[in-house]
Every structure is written in C-alpha cells, then in structure tokens.
Amino acid sequence: MRRRGGDGDSGDSGDIGDIGRAERRHGTARHGRARRWWLPWLRSLLLAPLLSCAAVPFLIRLFPSLLTKFVYLNFLAFPFFVDFRRPELLVNNTINLYLTTEPGVTVGIWHTVPSSKGAEAQGKEQRWYEEALADAHPVIIYLHGNGGTRAASHRVQFLKTMGAADFHILALDYRGYGDSTGRPSESGFTTDVLALYDWVKARSGNSSILFWGHSLGTGIATNAARKLQEERGKGQHGWVVPMQCHPGLILGPQRR
Ligand SMILES: *[C@@H]1O[C@H](CO)[C@@H](O)[C@H](O)[C@H]1NC(C)=O
Ligand SMILES: *[C@@H]1O[C@H](CO)[C@@H](O)[C@H](O)[C@H]1NC(C)=O
User: Fold this and answer.
1) Distance between terminal CA atoms of the chain?
2) Pair 28, 127 in one domain
3) Are the CB atoms for 105 and 175 separated by under 8 Å?
4) Same-domain check for residues 222 and 175
C-alpha cells in the first residue's frame, strides 16, 4: 500500500519523482496524479460548448427561422399551467385584460394597481382598474425579456415590488407569447407596445408613463420610444433616457 501526503512521498515510483518534485515546489504535489485522468475530461467538457457555439452561425444560415426562435424563445411558455385570467393567485391587486393591438392580434396584459389602493381594489372589475389609472400615480409599462410569459416568477416579483412602491404596472405578453395571439416579430412587438401606450395614455390623465424593459424588452422599449418621438412626440414630451445597467432600461416621457 502506498502512503501519500506530507513529506512521505518517497513511495511514488521514480519516473514521476521529478515531476512530483517540480510540482511540490508549486504546492500541488498531491494533485499531480489526479490531473492526469481528469485533463481529457476537462478538455472535452470545454470543447463541446465551443464546437456547439461555432456550429450556431452555420445552423442559422441553413435554417434562418431558427434565429427568430432562439431570439424570442416564445415557445418556452413557462411557467406551465397558469390561468392567465386569474392573476390574483400569484399577485394581489391585479386584473387580467386583453387588448387588440391590430386586426387579428390580441395581447394579454396584467394590470397591478399601487398597493396603497389594495384594500379598495378587492373584488373590483376592469372598469374600476381603468379609472384608477387616472389617480396620478406613475404608470410603468413593463416589457419582459425573451422566454416565458408575464406569469414567470421573477416578473411576478417585479409586479409586487413596483406595486408596493405605488406604481401602476402593466405587464403584457407580446404577440406569440403566453395567451397572446399572433406571431412574434420585432415590428409587431413595437405595434403591441404602442397600442398599449395609447390605451394607457387615454386613461391616465397627466400621469407619467415609463417603459421599463428587461433584456429583449430594452430593445423593444427603445423602438417604441423612438417611434413615439418620431411620430407624435415633437413639442409634447421631453424624453428622458436614464440607462440602468443590465438588466433594465427605463425610458420616460416626462412633461416639462
Ligand atoms: C395577498 O394579500 C394577502 C394579505 O396581505 C396575503 O396574505 C396573500 O398572500 C397575498 N396573495 C398573494 C398571491 O401574494
Ligand atoms: C393636466 O394638466 C393640465 C395642465 O398642467 C391641467 O390643466 C389639467 O387639468 C390636468 N388634467 C388632469 C386630468 O389632471
């Protein structure tokens, strides 16, 4: 039986003695042998992802639709088995609604009211929620990232946190996500978001409206903000674009 460790390494066969000594100088003598068998494993472990990464551009060139699938990830509709019509099971003071953003496209939205209105909100219908938008609390339009739906737990957490901070939050599932109809596309997302913006604007009086984008949503927020400014912003809004570092971006139309 071979004894190892400490200074008693002399039991090792002579041919690795030199290596052993050299390594001991660097304080790694004990791992000298182990390294031999796990190195190839490590090599293949590192090589596999590298090769898959290298293959991606070729796959995308062969199958362009893969690109949109992997950018949007809307087919990953987690969490599964959620009843979108009953958001109150996940977050209080919230109602589910649908908005037709263009003919044939209807998107699902959750509207959470400021928690200071929580008691009042109990058992109220959509009409009450719509009227509540004019209560001077700022409104966040939340644009989520790729994959999953508005019911994903970190998004629900966002609704709770910002609701507690007394914001209105409207979280939509873009076309093709969750229970929204239609197919995902960059211009389609912008259309959905602008339709929601107009819907909010028609009900929110003088309240500020913020776009809060997360990941993929930051790009959508930028597109929507640019389009708003180009098409109807002139003279009406001073646009403020404070950038949060990843994972967020706030764009706010603010009144002067
Ligand atoms: C809603 O509020 C009640 C009372 O504060 C709390 O007990 C309950 O856990 C909340 N529900 C959810 C889904 O957060
Ligand atoms: C919005 O602001 C304008 C001018 O600041 C004011 O005249 C108007 O009454 C306000 N509207 C609401 C709904 O508060």
Assistant:
1) 84
2) no
3) yes
4) yes
Domain annotation covers residue 229: yes
Percent of the residues in the chain that have a pLDDT greater than 70, as a whole number: 77
206 Cβ below 6 A of ligand 2: yes
| Nearest in space to 95 (alpha carbons), one of 134, 125, 116 | 125
Confidence of residue 248 (pLDDT cuts 50, 70, 90): very low
Are residues 93 and 211 located together in one domain of the fold?
Answer: yes
Asked whether the predicted pLDDT for residue 19 surpasses 60, the reply is: no
pLDDT single digits (tens) 92-110: 999 999 999 999 999 999 9
115 in the same domain as 235: yes
Q: Which domain holds residue 198?
A: 87-254
Q: How far is the CA of 132 from the centre of ligand 1 (A)?
A: 21
Max distance between CA atoms of the chain, in angstroms, equals 87
CA of 196 to the centre of ligand 2 (A): 22
Q: How far, in Å, from the CA of 140 to the mean position of ligand 1? A: 22
**Where are the extended beta strands (E) located within 132-225?**
139-143, 168-172, 209-213
Tokens (6 digits) for 231: 């098409």
Q: Are residues 46 and 136 in the same domain?
A: no
Residue of 92, 110, 117, 159 to test ligand 1 pocket, by largest number of atoms within 8 Å of CB = 92
Q: Are residues 57 and 153 in the same domain?
A: no
